[in-house]
Each structure stands twice: as structure tokens, then as C-alpha cells.
Specification:
Blueprint lengths: L5 E5 L5 E4 L6 E2 L10 E5 L3 E5 L6 E4 L6 E3 L1 E3 L5 E4 L5 E6 L3 E6 L3 H6 L1 E2 L4
Parallel strand pairs: 2-3
Antiparallel strand pairs: 1-11, 2-4, 3-12, 4-5, 5-8, 6-7, 6-9, 9-10, 10-11
Length: 118
């Protein structure tokens, strides 16, 4: 089941889990992504948590270089590089909603998806 290129979440959807495992909300099937790689929670803003993943998460904000992060409050335009895979999530943050866009090659897009049974 391919994932939409854009998906909108509201704060009550949190936590939003990201990883290779089928039990995540955002499933990224790549061996370089941990089974339970990361989580986004709402705590007076959308907060990204890397869950001690094997290959880490790298945040590119503005014109800066990607830096490895553990916990970070998300801002519009942030680019989250998930591990060493080809998956990049671009986020747009509103007051109570979060839009996630997948920015990747078509072969990766065909494999990633968001579970519909959440």
C-alpha cells in the first residue's frame, strides 16, 4: 500500500510512531530504519523523539547542515532524515496540526505507507 506524499495529523493523533515495524503509524520498510525508530508527541508543540535508533535521525533546518537529534521541537520546513535510508520527512507545523511530506525517490515512495487502521 503506497503512502500518500502528504499526510495531515492533528495533535490528538499523537503519538505518531515511525519505523520499520508494521505496528507503526508511518511504516518505512528499510533495514536502515529501526523497528521503532522515532515518535512524535504533542507537548505544547510537536516534539520529535528518536527512540535510540541504530542509525539515528538527522534534522536539516533552513540552510544548515543536517545534525543528529534525539529530541527536538519541530518547526515548519524541517527536514528529518530517517537513519541512513532514503526516507526524508518534510514537516509543516500549525498550531494544532502537522503535515508530513515524504521527499524521496519513487522506489522508496512505493514501499512506505501510513496504516489506515489507527
Amino acid at each position: 500500500m503506497p503512502m500518500k506524499q502528504e499526510y495531515k495529523f492533528v495533535k490528538t493523533d499523537c503519538p505518531i510512531t515511525i519505523g520499520r515495524g508494521e505496528d507503526n503509524i508511518i511504516v518505512l520498510p528499510d533495514e536502515r530504519v529501526s523497528n521503532h525508530h522515532a515518535r512524535i508527541e504533542y507537548e505544547d508543540g510537536f516534539i520529535f523523539h528518536d527512540l535510540d535508533s541504530s542509525n539515528g535521525t538527522f534534522l536539516k533546518r533552513g540552510s544548515g547542515r543536517p545534525e543528529r537529534i534525539i529530541v527536538e521541537k519541530l518547526e515548519s520546513g524541517d527536514m528529518l532524515h530517517i537513519g541512513l535510508s532514503g526516507y526524508v520527512l518534510k514537516v509543516t507545523v500549525g498550531d494544532e496540526d502537522l503535515v508530513i511530506n515524504l521527499v524521496l525517490t519513487p522506489s522508496y515512495l512505493e514501499r512506505a505507507y501510513i496504516r489506515n487502521d489507527r
